[in-house]
Design a protein that fits this description.
126 residues; alpha/beta; Rossmann fold; four-stranded mixed β-sheet; 5 helices; 37% helix
Length: 126
């Protein structure tokens, strides 16, 4: 694999604070967050990643919640965000949250996030 066996593909758009890190669900990719990126990147720094075994990230022999949580933390460390909030599909919330070693801000279902920009902004600012 050109990018190595542990490669995590991610994209960054926007420059505002805090950084919003988007985590997709199973059998999805970072492309699923395009609507949210378009809506939120003018106000926030937005980061989306392809979890291991998804999209353009490395395809490990075994995919587990543990290596998905590790991938989220690796991207968070790599982007060196001063303040960050994790947004993910509801199905991923419990698993990734229990593995994360950092403070989580808001957690929203993907579909609700792009419909409630005003509410989400208030929650982020709180």
């Amino acid at each position: 694999m050109a990018n190595g066996p542990n490669h995590i593909n991610f994209v960054v758009r926007g420059t505002g604070d805090p950084t919003l890190i988007f985590v997709h669900g199973f059998a999805c990719s970072l492309d699923d967050w395009e609507e949210q990126f378009r809506a939120l990147s003018p106000r926030f720094r937005c980061v989306a990643l392809d979890l291991p075994g998804h999209g353009d990230s490395a395809k490990p022999e075994a995919i587990s919640i543990e290596n998905m949580g590790t991938a989220v933390n690796q991207v968070k460390d790599r982007i060196a965000a001063r303040r960050s909030n994790l947004l993910m599909e509801k199905r991923m919330m419990t698993q990734v949250r229990r593995l994360s070693d950092w403070s989580l801000g808001i957690i929203h279902q993907a579909r609700a996030a792009h419909r409630k920009h005003g509410l989400m902004h208030e929650e982020i600012a709180a």
